[in-house]
Amino acid sequence: MTADATPRPGGDPPIPSGSIYDLGYRGYDGPRLGRRHAVGALFTHTLLSCYGIGRGGRAKIIPFVLAGIAVLPAVIAVGLVALARQAGQAGEFITDASPIRYETYFEIVGQIVALFCAAQAPELLGRDQRYSVLSLYFSRALERTDYAIAKLGGFVVALLALVLAPQIILVLGLTLSSPDLAEGLGENLPKVPPILAQAITLSAVFGSLSLAIAAFTPRRAYATAGIIASFIIPPVVAEIAREVTSRDISRWFVLASPPDVIGATNAFFFDIRPDSSVIAAARHPGELYLAVAALAVAACTGILIRRYQRITA
Amino acid sequence: MVSPWSDDRHRDSPEQRPTHLAPDAPGRSPRGRRRTEQHLATGFAPRSAADVHRPAPAARRIPYPSGVPLISLRELTKRYNGGVTALDGLTVDIEPGIVGLVGSNGAGKSTLLKILLGLIDATSGEATVMDLDVRTRGTEIRQFVGYMPEHDALPPDATATDLVAHLARMSGLPTTAARERTAEVLRHVGLYEERYRAIGGYSTGMKQRVKLAQALVHDPRLLLLDEPTNGLDPSGRDEMLELVRRTGAEFGIAVVVASHLLGEIERVCDHLVAIEGGRLLRSAPLDTFTERTGLVAIEVEEGAERLAAALVGRGVEARLDGRAVVVDVRDERFYDLARDALVDLDLALVRIEPRRRHLEDLFRDEEPGEVPAA
Hints:
The complex is a heterodimer. By secondary structure, chain A is mainly α. Chain A has helices at 34-50, 61-87, 89-97, 102-130, 134-138, 144-176, 181-188, 192-214, 220-244, 247-253, 258-270, 277-282, 286-310; strands spanning 5-6, 15-16. Helix content of chain A is 73%, strand content 1%. A two-stranded antiparallel ribbon of chain A has the order 1-2. In chain A, a hairpin with an 8-residue loop joins strand 1 (5-6) and strand 2. In chain A, helix 2 runs parallel beside helix 6, helix 4 (102-130) runs parallel beside helix 8 and helix 8 (192-214) runs antiparallel to helix 11. By secondary structure, chain B is α/β, with parallel strands linked by helices. Chain B has 3 domains: 4-58, no CATH class; 71-289, P-loop containing nucleotide triphosphate hydrolases (Rossmann fold, 3-Layer(aba) Sandwich); 295-355, Alpha-Beta Plaits. Helix content of chain B is 35%, strand content 22%. Chain B is built from 13 helices and 14 strands. Chain B has helices at residues 4-9, 30-42, 49-53, 109-117, 138-143, 160-170, 175-188, 204-216, 234-250, 262-268, 286-292, 304-313, 333-345, and strands at residues 71-79, 85-94, 98-102, 124-129, 132-133, 145-148, 222-226, 254-259, 271-276, 279-285, 295-300, 318-321, 324-328, 349-355. Chain B has a 6-stranded mixed sheet, with helices on both faces. A 4-stranded antiparallel sheet of chain B has the order 2-1-4-5. In chain B, helix 6 (160-170) crosses helix 7 (175-188), helix 7 (175-188) crosses helix 8 and helix 12 (304-313) packs across helix 13 (333-345). In chain B, 44% of the residues are buried. Classes of the chains: A mainly alpha, B alpha/beta. At the A-B interface, helix 1 and helix 5 of A face helix 5, strand 6, helix 6, helix 7 and helix 9 of B.
């Protein structure tokens, strides 16, 4: 410090007058909010990262393109219905024949969700592993389990947003475009609980499964391939089993196929007959698929937590 | 000044008392001296004179009874599955100050830091930080510890501000405070202008500063630095060491610096803990090292052999090393003898400098494994 030092209150380093101020280092006396705040902050950060927010322009391309594709059928459907209502009686045919409904929407959007998982799950977990950022996280007052749970929560909520956005558009669009608002509400509101239930089930199963796979490798290509394989291969195996073996054996293969399980829970929640022949042939009660889904979520979450408890930071 | 630290722990002669803790030790700034006094008296440094009279906020105080070492290791052992023993029955106490943890590569320094942080579990033995067991109370410890890892731990697509603010929130700071602290800390480490660029474009020196910033952002009481000058050019090393020295000396933060570069560490540290092969070699204040042992190299333009012979003739152990004569300095008279020999032989002196080529050279006086009471 120079000779003309001006003492400052609080005992901070004196400011040399007439030169660049070196404000130096100050202590931090404020609140320290502990683990819960840290987990919440990581959750929010993960959720935003899934859509590339806060990560630069290029990171936003894939998620927003996929989200746009996911939402597009809903927008089209609402537009069609609005036009059809104006066409009067003939329009009823169009409305009833439209393949884009609440019940069918999850099947339409399922493949988009699979792509989203394959693209974003490796990014979420692999980036921290690849660059050894985990040592910066785990040297803080944040447990390893907290990290895993926060990442899982953020990813599942991101998927939920992806899956619910088009459904919300459908609900609002169909309600508002019906001639009588009360009638429109009466038609569409009862659909909301099954929509929510299926959305939560789908997000939880796909999300936990993708993260459980992505946690095991920092290399993005392997993780992406693994996730895609987990969506494509089991249904093929179930289909082959149905062709090749007897029904008593092949009906259990369906339970190991995530897209089929989700398709079955969709049918269960909306109380309709399942489209897929594999599911129909298996003839399990809907509750079983729901139980299998819950079990899968628990198992994948456990695998994820265990992986992060053992990984070397 | 009589403080709880010196009374409780050092019952031996005054030479054994660590000189770096004495408030009137040479080289301490007035501010550093005041901080040390408060630190010693209360166990944790208040931030200003006013704080001495005002009780500190509860969040900043953690139970840290006086008379207990800052870091205490008892028979700490770590064996890896492949049969590698990283730490072997390490037992040492570490007190606040700027402590250098030195040892060759593979001596167990990084492993020790990771065990203190709870990143690795020890195979056996005990370790406590601030009187908290690292196995059971790691979360509480980590609230007040900052860690600068040895390896490159930074994602290339994040900006320095984003990363450090995010990690500040991970340490429990509220969002607004995290942003403010991030800006302050980045300015403190000298990265203020570049903080909005992606880290991938930074030089090694800048990346090391980011790592130091994230270690400081939550205002830790203890800073663990693992090879902070790794990969830096000489001016970068000087700047980093100066940052470390200021952080430890002026801001009341206890620092442990792990390094295999003894020459650098002795410039900033006041206490050295030397580890070799996972065992404690020596733990003592820095001045005891330089007083009692040390090689000195006398480099002359020509005639080194004659100088060596002359010194040996006067009873000094000397050996030749190129154009230099390396002498093991045992007492003060050596310098007079050397001067006389140089004058008598009419040799042109280039330089006289202390030289340490091997870590073990420093400890040739002691039996390996002997721990002086310090």
